[in-house]
Amino acid sequence: MAAKMGFRELVSYDALGITFPANTVTTLRATTSKRPDLIENFLKTLIEGIHIFKTNKSKSLAVMKKHLLGASDEILEETYKYSAGALELQPYPSLDVVKSGLEILSVQYPQAEQTDPNLLIDPSFVKRIEQSGFIAGLKRVQNVQAVQSPGSSPGSVQIESANGWLRG
């Protein structure tokens, strides 16, 4: 869209080989050890939101239109296509993303070069969720409905999922 308006792309991370996060969750190790239930529930909500976004395009576009005020249908469509391709249903931490981040940080903080990226990621939460069947269950049950919220303004969308995780 921007190209049609005469703008040029300044940087293409893909062309430069820079891996960047599309959906990153960052927290303190203390939180993961003290509140594993919080982390797991948050990740389930994120995963279900990604699932709804990717499998219910019209509903996703309606929510985007509501919150991205003034965006044309063409921009919303382009944004949806890019985002749907970038978001992973199983949001495992990416070693490449962490390595890229450390490389970028090392310009200002040289000690970042010495950091072992493996120590910064913990895939165990997503792995447990996947092994529990939660993600497979989302793929099987696609009875998500978008309904008009009672008493809400026109265009307001409430997303109800099979297990009630999301309201918006």
Structure description:
This protein is mainly alpha-helical. The protein has a domain at 27-141. 50% of the residues lie in helices and 5% in strands. Strands 1-2 form a two-stranded antiparallel sheet. Helix 4 packs across helix 5 (73-86). The radius of gyration is 19 Å and the shape is flat.
Low-confidence stretches: 143-160
Q: What's the overall average pLDDT, rounded?
A: 83
- Please give the count of helices: 8
Global morphology:
flat
Radius of gyration: 19 Å
First-residue to last-residue Cα separation: 28 Å
DSSP helix fraction: 40-55%
Sequence of strands across the biggest β-sheet: 1-2
The fraction of residues assigned to DSSP E strands is under 5%
State the oligomer. single chain
Structural class by SSE content: mainly alpha
In short:
The protein has 168 residues and is mainly α. Helix content is 50%, strand content 5%.
Could you give the topology of this structure?
Layout: H1 13-16, H2 29-34, H3 36-55, H4 57-67, H5 73-86, H6 95-108, H7 124-131, H8 134-140, E1 145-148, E2 157-160
Antiparallel strand pairs: 1-2
Helix pairs in contact: 3-8, 4-5
Q: What are the main properties of this structure?
A:
8 helices; 168 residues; mainly alpha; two-stranded antiparallel ribbon
